[in-house]
């Protein structure tokens, strides 16, 4: 039974999605949970990797649960949660068609990069957001974000070390959303919401850094234009830290899990 | 120099405000930081205690910094942060009048109790909120919350073990605020915001439990009325867990720290 999982994780103490020897990973924990819950050795395929320290509210993955296991598909979540560490939880599970592949079937991904503006660290914001000492202007951040929308060669928005066939990606939307208290009176940060058909290594974190530095005027909008026109990585600002990044949603063009 | 601090902490791994031998406390960490930064042995007075596991976005405390220490009052925060653990941070510091006492001068305190509604744990919400498996009705929660407003004998809303002169307190406001995504489309929890002139041991956590259980109909509103009329603790629901509670603001009738 091809089984899809909706997974949420707090990446703080995880070494990213992909299984490796240097610490706990989401893929490794899920494969271990399948082994312990069902006695099955499987490969869990994610919609894509996330780096060490990156969080997910709605990562999607799939694996082949042996037919001999008799369980309602939506109960697979509960069975796996028994064996998962608290930082990783399966929110939903469902049976999907044999052709479904969490990576190859993905149409769009939505990431959020969260930043709070403060000269001093705030312990209640530090875990899921990065701190930024400046006060970026929202209109200027929006101007930079709009430039990034569309189909572009994002080579300059990628850290070295990635080997991909093409660095062309389509960003469907990139928006700086004010992060405010309930009354909307005091804006204390920004959520940078980005949706695209795929992302290069560190691409969202570099985009977030460029949008913030355009917002303060440190980075001219012309540098972003130049970067998109085949320019180099060093035209842009720094790569923002992993902890501010959350994979929020993977879109497959249909509702995988029902409601 | 009587020095006031605005302090934020993530209570997850702290044994509460008050200094003790069984683990790190906020008061203990602050007194140690004053010792290490300034070589001074002081007593740090908080606006009140918070329990193990409870968070604070705006706790206030004060201490007497020896006159021989030459430092701008607003820089005391940076000096202490060098020696504090990441879970505790001084957001602001200021010189205050000799009469100021963070506990006795406090006029109002505002707490928030956060709850998310889900049958399964969500790793990204678990740290600062409690999970509730039901779907409480906001109108019924509001009805219960309104009953709690005003001056009442809150004896039934207190855990045994507290020794106080009077169990009469004034709750200025108690409001269940929908906790929704940005678009306000999907309400996934509730923030119970409570402001009062003082709170008994576990009072906010018991209030939150009663409001939630009124919301699901498990607890009749009449039981809350009876409890307020001098009834017993066992009329009400359970004490909600510490991690959902955050001390947000202490009001002294004037702006301690300027802007």
Folded structure, characterized:
Two copies of one chain form a homodimer. The first copy, chain A, has helices at residues 26-38, 76-81, 138-148, 203-216, 221-228; strands spanning 2-9, 45-46, 55-64, 88-95, 108-117, 130-132, 150-153, 168-180, 187-196, 245-251. By secondary structure, chain A is of the alpha+beta class. The first copy, chain A, has two domains: 2-105, Alpha-Beta Plaits (2-Layer Sandwich), CATH 3.30.70; 108-249, Alpha-Beta Plaits, CATH 3.30.70.660. In chain A, strand 2 and strand 3 form a beta hairpin. In chain A, helix 3 runs antiparallel to helix 4 and helix 3 packs parallel to helix 5 (221-228). Chain A is globular and about 60 Å long. Chain A starts with a strand and ends in an 8-residue tail after the last strand. The mean pLDDT of chain A is 94.
CATH class category name of the largest domain in chain A: Alpha Beta
Major sheet characteristics of chain A: 10 strands, mixed
**CATH fold naming of the largest domain in chain A:** Alpha-Beta Plaits
In what range is the share of β-strand residues of chain A? Answer: 25-35%
Write the layout of secondary structure elements.
2 copies of one chain form a homodimer.
Chain A (H helix, E strand, L loop, with lengths): L1 E8 L16 H13 L6 E2 L8 E10 L11 H6 L6 E8 L12 E10 L12 E3 L5 H11 L1 E4 L14 E13 L6 E10 L6 H14 L4 H8 L16 E7 L8
Parallel strand pairs in A: 3-10, 5-6
Antiparallel strand pairs in A: 1-3, 1-4, 2-3, 5-9, 5-10, 7-8, 8-9
